[in-house]
Amino acid sequence: MTLSAIQPIRSDQDPAERNSRPGHSRATAPLRTRSQKTKYALTVLAFLLPSAIPLALFTLGPMIGAAWISLTKWNLLAPQQFIGLDNYSKLLTDPRTGEIFLHTVYYIAGYLPLVYVGGLALALALNTALKGRSFLRGVYFLPVITSWIVVALVWRWLLNPSSGAVNSVLGWFGIEGPGWWTDPNWAMPSIILASAWKDLGFVMVILLAGLQSISPDLYDAAKVDGAGWWRRTFSVTIPLLSPSTFFVLIISLINGFQVFDQVYAMTSGGPAGASQVVVQQIYDLTFRYGKAGEASALSWLLFIVVLAVTVIQIRGQKRWVNYG
Amino acid sequence: MAERAVIHDRPRLTPRQLAGAIILHAIVIAGAAIMFFPFLWTIITSITPDASLTVAPAIIPQNPSLGAYEQLFTERPFGLVIVNSFVLAAITTAVQLFTSSTAGYAFSRLPFRGRGIVFAVYLATMMIPLQVLIVPLFVEMKSFGLLNTYLGALLPTFASAFGIFLLRQAINQVPHELDEAATIDGAGHFRIFAFIILPNIKPALATLVVFAFMGSWNSFLWPLIVLRSPELQTLPIALAGLQGQYISDWDVIMAGSVVSVIPMLAIYIFAQKYIIQGVASSGIK
Amino acid sequence: MNRKIMAVVGLTGVAALVMTGCSATPAEPDAPVTITYTNFISNDGNEANLAKIVDAFEKANPNITVDVTTLPYSDYGTALQTDLAAGTVSDVFDIEYANYASYQANGVLAPLKVSNPSAYRQSLLEAYSTDGTSYALPSSFSDVVLYYNKDLFDAAGVSYPTNDWTWADEKAAALKITDQAAGIWGDHQPVSFYEYYKVLAQNGGKFLNDDGKTVAFNTPAGIEAAKWLVEKSGTTMPTIEQGQGTPDFDTNLFKDGKLAMLHTGIWVFGAFTDSPANWDIAVEPSNGTKASAVFSNAIGVSANSKHIEAATKWAEFMTSSDTMVQVRLDSGWELPPISDDAKLATYLDKGAPANRQAVFDALDGIALPPVVANGQSEMQDIMTEELVEAQAGRKTVEEALASAEKRINAVLAGQ
Hints:
The complex is a heterotrimer. Chain A is mainly alpha-helical. Chain A has helices at residues 15-20, 24-27, 34-69, 86-93, 95-125, 133-145, 148-158, 165-172, 187-211, 216-224, 229-240, 242-257, 261-266, 278-288, 292-320; strands spanning 72-73, 81-82. Chain A has a two-stranded antiparallel ribbon with strand order 1-2. Chain A starts with 14 loop residues before the first helix and ends with a helix. The model of chain A is unreliable at 10-27 (pLDDT under 50). Chain B is 70% helix and 0% strand. Chain B contains 14 helices and no strands. Chains A and B meet through helix 2, helix 3, helix 6, helix 7 and helix 9 of A and helix 1, helix 2, helix 4, helix 5 and helix 6 of B.
């Protein structure tokens, strides 16, 4: 790509760009001369290269390395054998692949609404005139920085079917609690519960930061119009929080597809593989089962799925994300 | 909004609002107790010698002792690994603030042909699990001669798609009118970036400080693989080293866990001030 | 750049080929060399003890320096595999028995000329040899014994276990002692691969057929052995729902005096020294064939080490020297793998349990875990998973073993 190829898109060429970022075309006047174009291109490069170089060298590079490994049979010990697309065809015909993707999607479907609604409620509550809210924000952030080893131990105890606190409380109401992580049907809900609990503070922090960019004038205006707290929340706060919501959604999806630590620490994928997820399988294949080629192929399948979901989200954002 | 609302609302509380405030306090505090419980459990276990894991801890520990903490800093190199981890996390955070804000600016304010695709490629770097990148990355670092060096541990953390995305979202929300006013005054992109954009995204920058620091502070797999000399090792590796092949001393493991959480908590509390400070102080309406 | 990375990654394979092809060139005898040693055995408290052994070795071999790296046990395998893949492995490194067959078959380990093979316990030395050649040297061992709580036996009027006990004796005692209402349990034995291959051997069965390509446990003897393990759950042993299988559950139960018999390794002696329970050990009961589990760690020399001679010297020193024996016994750092029982005599008087002789008696009949060159971890995972399915009552023992047979055979066939 030559330098002069990097140039601004005129707003009339791309209506989508114009909708999502109103006003940018006014800030950047059309560039006429060659030297202006070159100067603009250099500016763009100056802003992008500090991040592009490390990403290209230390993430994209190894990704391509992994793509090569996915075309081989390799136990990390003996020399690699090139086998073309065999790893992919094996994965695509193995019903187990579908199962672990389903478990992963199940995780996301349970985790995402819980953590978002909880995190939003928390951010709104801790953004009001609560006494001791700085302290409370710190407490709600504690689980985010506590290691999964500890969190998993605690949750396995809380969710112990016979002596755990959760089933004891359910017992007071005459409800017989489930087997939680010892039961194949309840293992994933157990993981979802613990994960949402741990990540509430993460979502809270992002949304709290997002809340700060909403101008108080808008609230005052809504108040003048007689809007109550609920209406202000739903017609001012939530729409104006949409860029942060979009961020939380994309990041949680990408991370959700790569869920691993909590599964490893809470159930190791059990019982009987009922909570086995994609990245746990990748780890086992690489470092425990001596199938690095298959693991890399599985990673690339995961990559394609996550990319597709993310692109759909990015396309869809224009309908609901409001950059104010 | 919040800081101002406090002042305006307080004198005008109706009984209904008062009841609402009490209920809200009750819920939030009860929730906080649930959030705090595992940490409390960790602390209690850490001061209980011969701690056992399978029963709920006593509220008042029997024979409480700080022996586990003493062990961390005398028999184990926890002093050293905390300093190492802190230095690595501080460098990572500083560099990420720079690379994320510049890239975020480009993706928000510098349109060019193919920008959407470049941004998608950036995001795509988050979509392959680290577990499969480790071996190729290790081979690459070997060819650069950077094995067992801090540079080798740091380089892959210098740019983060997470941080870039976070700051791009924040910059998107800064009103374009501000740039335009500056452009009319003759400011170029570098000045707009430094004097208009950065001061207006302080909450997002503070958020990034928390997450960049935390990412480095907790990172395990890559430092484990690339840093082998005892004097280079980091906190999470030393924590993992507390678990034995057959048996583990849980009081020591929990003490290590408490020690590892405290500096991170301090960073969060420090950054929180800026996360909440927000727009009100930056002079925009 | 991309092409370069690909080339680099591709080269790894080539490098591995080259490594295995060339044997070491003999170093000049007096030239000073530095060898690297990566270990997990000293992690978690024995770093200083390892340093003592290194010092003694360097004193005895002034031209050799040993450069030690210690990694956490839990992640040692990940780091070692990465090193093997990239060709950066140390001259000398720790391995576990379960990985031996795979490393040996893939040409990772150098064949060793052991100068004094008779110093080692033969069963342990042979465990790390293939076709009569040693490819690694045992560095320590532990075995699994039956712990018992004398007070609970006394209270129930049952006589203490002896080395000659059978499964029937164990079951009768466990049933008599178990009092679920009082929270007293008779027995505890994990339901896992590592227990199953052993009880299988105790029942006269085999895990793998002689060719090592298919499993041999789906037989009446194998089913009986699996039932022996699985049916303890809920009768004489707590169920999974009651907490069985969580870390430290069994040892805590024993420590608290609520468990009469516990099958576990000698590594928990230390954890019980402060226990109020009055306890001792015996060799594990059997059902015809005495078979105790032995866990051992070993030390291998990299096939592409440039200093195989010096590395072998260190490996031998670390596994059989008197200094090592002394340091290990003094600090209670597992048991040295040596053959001379006289040197181990002090171990018998190191405090509880009284019957430390059982640790050595157990070695008269041992069962080593089945090992395969490809698919070891997968085989172990499948076996444990199927047994736990039977324990949880989601499958019958027969169904679980049939399923395990089918799945493990597929793994061994390389699918």
